[in-house]
Design goal:
mainly beta; seven-stranded mixed beta sheet
Length: 123
Amino acid sequence: QVQLVESGGGLAQPGGSLRLSCAASGGTFSRYDMSWVRQAPGKGLEWVSDISNGGDRTDYADSVKGRFTISRDNAKNTLYLQMNSLNPEDTALYYCARPKRSRGSNWLDYRYWGQGTQVTVSS
């Protein structure tokens, strides 16, 4: 059974940074592409970023491009999301997920996801 556990969320000021981590277990992490998605209160799922299984290809939503960086350490079975220049619109519950397809826009596009970590950007 695949388990994904996110951590690293919290309160950040506008312009600040946070680094999210996602620890994976129960599967062969290095075989699969991974994603970060988020859901703001009262809104639908928003795809944030994808990374290939080897980490050599990345993709970002326009809303985070140039500010967020996805990475992974396959030796540690861990996925990361470095978030810089945060703004209040980034406030959401952030999930790591194993996608069925790239740029998935709803939960059906993902096979596994974690419990999420809350990111709040406010002064």
